[in-house]
């Protein structure tokens, strides 16, 4: 019969555990794994954020190119509001609704932009009256099978902000899909005190944080 003492570490009744992990060692390993997992998760989130920012910049470039093509065809930049057509608006998301209404015109070679429909929304729930619909059809005849005043959203679900240079100095209201209303105005260069893009337009996304900074901070702007 095997003597217990032959495999006992000398402490009565407790077998030797040579090569086994102690509780402290196990806790250290768990802590290291947790840190590595956290770093990996942060890296994934950071890569996703960077990818969306890059895609948003591409979106801004595409829209800006479409605006210039429109200007070459019509001789002017899209107005900041459909009120330019004597249409009464609710004063929310005006620049966005007007810009994409004009870019989607069928006239003079339009539409001028390929806007992904999964980025369309009617955040403030407004629509043209029958009479206003007739005006829009006569003036810009946009590509749309509804009288809803659609906005084009950035990749975080907020409407792009658009202001024609003729409207610099005024304040406008925007509403996100989630219902939050925020105020915007054209950006001035803090060094020179002059308007950014002084003779054309300002177009920007409020960025990943969803907070409008009038083209600064993490906002993604056409003039940067």
Task: Explain what this protein looks like in three dimensions.
The chain has a three-stranded antiparallel beta sheet with strand order 3-6-7. A two-stranded antiparallel sheet has the order 1-2. It is elongated. It is an alpha+beta fold. The protein contains three helices and seven strands; from the N terminus they run H-H-E-H-E-E-E-E-E-E.
Work out the strand percent.
Answer: 5-15%
Radius of gyration: 29 Å
| Structural domain count | 1
> What is the spatial order of strands in the main beta sheet?
3-6-7
- Number of strand segments: 7
Separate helix tally: 3
Sketch the topology as an H/E string, one letter per element: HHEHEEEEEE
Based on secondary structure, the structural category is: alpha+beta
How much helix, percentage-wise, in residues?
25-40%
Low-confidence stretches: 7-11
Q: Describe the main β-sheet briefly.
A: 3 strands, antiparallel
Distance between the termini: 86 Å
Average pLDDT number: 88
- In one word, what is the shape? elongated
Give a short synopsis of this structure:
This protein has 224 residues and is α+β, with helices and mostly antiparallel strands. The protein has 3 helices and 7 strands. It is elongated.
Features of this protein?
224 residues, alpha+beta, three-stranded antiparallel sheet, 3 helices, 32% helix
Task: Annotate the secondary structure layout.
Blueprint: H1 23-74, H2 94-103, E1 120-121, H3 130-139, E2 151-152, E3 161-164, E4 171-175, E5 181-185, E6 201-205, E7 220-221
Antiparallel strand pairs: 1-2, 3-6, 4-5, 6-7
């Amino acid at each position: 019969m095997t003597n217990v003492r032959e495999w006992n570490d000398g402490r009565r009744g407790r077998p030797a555990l040579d090569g086994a992990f102690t509780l402290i060692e196990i806790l250290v390993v768990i802590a290291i794994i947790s840190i590595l997992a956290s770093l990996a998760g942060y890296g994934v989130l950071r890569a996703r954020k960077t990818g969306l920012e890059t895609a948003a910049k591409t979106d801004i470039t595409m829209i800006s190119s479409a605006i210039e093509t429109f200007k070459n065809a019509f001789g002017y930049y899209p107005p900041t509001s459909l009120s330019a057509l004597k249409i009464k608006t609710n004063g929310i998301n005006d620049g966005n609704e007007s810009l994409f209404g004009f870019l989607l015109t069928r006239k003079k070679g339009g539409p001028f932009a390929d806007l992904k429909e999964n980025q369309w929304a009617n955040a403030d729930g407004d629509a043209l009256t029958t009479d206003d619909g007739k005006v829009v059809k006569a003036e810009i005849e946009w590509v749309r099978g509804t009288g809803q005043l659609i906005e084009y959203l950035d990749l975080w679900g907020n409407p792009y902000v658009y202001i024609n240079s003729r409207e610099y100095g005024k304040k406008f209201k925007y509403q996100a899909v989630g219902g939050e209303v925020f105020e915007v105005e054209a950006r001035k260069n803090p060094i020179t005190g002059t308007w950014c893009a002084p003779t054309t337009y300002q177009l920007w996304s409020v960025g990943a944080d969803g907070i409008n900074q009038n083209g600064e901070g993490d906002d993604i702007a056409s003039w940067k």
